[in-house]
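Objective 1b of the project was to move from sequence-level analysis to a structural picture of ligand recognition. The entry below was assembled by the postdoctoral researcher (A.K.) and checked by the PI before modelling. It contains the amino acid sequence of the target and the SMILES of the bound compound, magnesium ion.
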Amino acid sequence: MTAKPATGAAEPGGTGWEDGIGRLVAARKLLVALDFDGTLAPLVDNPEDSRPVPGARTALARLARVDRVQLALVSGRPAADLARLASPPDGTWLAGSHGAEQGRMSGAAAVLEPVELTAAQSRELDAIRAGLEDLAAAGPGAWIESKPLAAVFHTRPMADRAAASHLEEQAAGLGEALGGHVLAGKMVVEISILPAGKAAALTRLRHAAGADRLVFAGDDTTDELALDTIHPPDLGIKVGPGATTAELRLPDPLAVAAFLHALADALV
Ligand SMILES: [Mg+2]
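Corresponding predicted holo structure:
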């Protein structure tokens, strides 16, 4: 018997995920929680162009039909955008804005729990947006995305990567100075007025589902905080390159779709 690689590289003739799936199918109730961008959908310059890869939607539909599975999408996206772009199956739970927004799919529509901001929180968010707009003006290609609970500084279109990372540092500093919660990802700095995180969202979803096992897949540094809390018999999946403590690594969203189909095969 040979020692298994620590981060789930495939063994010859295998996919590397057989052990993990074997544990998941033993669940009485299984939570399947997935990030969206970079996990079910390829990363794209314009967030509006993001769509699941071929095979991802059918895999989710198959899992949704299994009684002992609860599906959830856990994303930094606003929950309404997440529902519109991912169009997940009826009954899928939604954790948007890194878990600060909650909802579920009812048919093809998203039913979201309202989040009310206080006047002080609204002023704080306005100040964060204004500060980030000033920074974006200094970096050709940088732009600001407005979310219900956050402002996001994007530098992906910037050609000058050194200037981009300098601006990202300034954006994070500005967010902290204004009392926001800073989440730094790949070429994005998100500043939220509410504390949120995918690790806390997973804990909440697991309790709500009454799940005795969970699998979570994500690609970004913000997902790594959640992956770091996942241990066998649960399964954490890192998508794409980069340091991780996840048990399994999959190269891209197409591989995630293949994994989800294999999980559905094993569950029926
Ligand atoms: Mg992602």
